[in-house]
Amino acid sequence: MDYRIEHKEGQRFAAVVQSFPNEIVNDDNNHSIPDFWEECSEKNLIEPMKQLRVEGKRDLYGLCSPVRDSKTHFNYGIGVIIDGDTDTAKLQDFIDSGYSIWETEPADYAVFQCFGPDGDCLGETWSRFFREFVPQTGYMQTEDTDYEIYFEKGESGLFCELWVPVKQI
């Protein structure tokens, strides 16, 4: 399984966030998160967010809080990173209109490229993460935000990159 390990300092994102029940995580037939993407697109919530970023750096992030046994729901957000290429002057307007700021802690990530025409490759990568990566590498997932990056200008056939927070066992 091809991967790389990268360290990221804390990051900030502007995002549309919704809460989902924990049960959907292991249900291959559940389409709640893809439906959320479609709903946000139809309501024109994504494109204006992308305009906060300079052209060529309008990557979208699918942010996922950890699923915890002590809670019944987890959060999923669709967002853009906030950094030096973000128009922060317009950011407050987004917050005032219901967008959220999502912050991550510094973490090490196992990064996987997901190739395919649709989200099936993402589910396959998650399955292989637990079936192959964890037993073979001595890493385990931590309780930090995992995310997908959907590149504005990605390589041919690349659906997204999956960034899973990990630590060595």
Per-chain topology:
Layout: E1 4-8, E2 12-21, H1 32-42, H2 47-50, E3 60-64, E4 73-82, H3 91-96, E5 100-103, E6 107-115, H4 120-137, E7 139-141, E8 146-150, E9 158-168
Antiparallel strand pairs: 1-6, 2-4, 2-5, 3-4, 3-8, 6-9, 7-9, 8-9
Characteristic key phrases:
169 residues, alpha+beta, nine-stranded antiparallel sheet, 9 strands, 37% strand
CA-based shape: globular
Low-pLDDT stretches = none
- Beta-strand level of the residues, as a percent range? 35-45%
Mean pLDDT: 95
Compute the CA-based radius of gyration: 16 Å
SSE topology string: EEHHEEHEEHEEE
Number of helices: 4
Please give the alpha-carbon distance between the first and last residues: 19 Å
Residue share in helices?
A: 10-25%
* Largest β sheet strand count, sense and barrel closure: 9 strands, antiparallel
The structural class is alpha+beta
Count of extended strands: 9
Structure explained in plain terms:
The chain has helices spanning 32-42, 47-50, 91-96, 120-137, and strands at residues 4-8, 12-21, 60-64, 73-82, 100-103, 107-115, 139-141, 146-150, 158-168. Strands 1, 2, 3, 4, 5, 6, 7, 8 and 9 form a nine-stranded antiparallel sheet that branches. The chain is an alpha+beta fold.
What's this entry about, in short?
The chain is α+β, with helices and mostly antiparallel strands and 169 residues long. It has 4 helices and 9 strands.
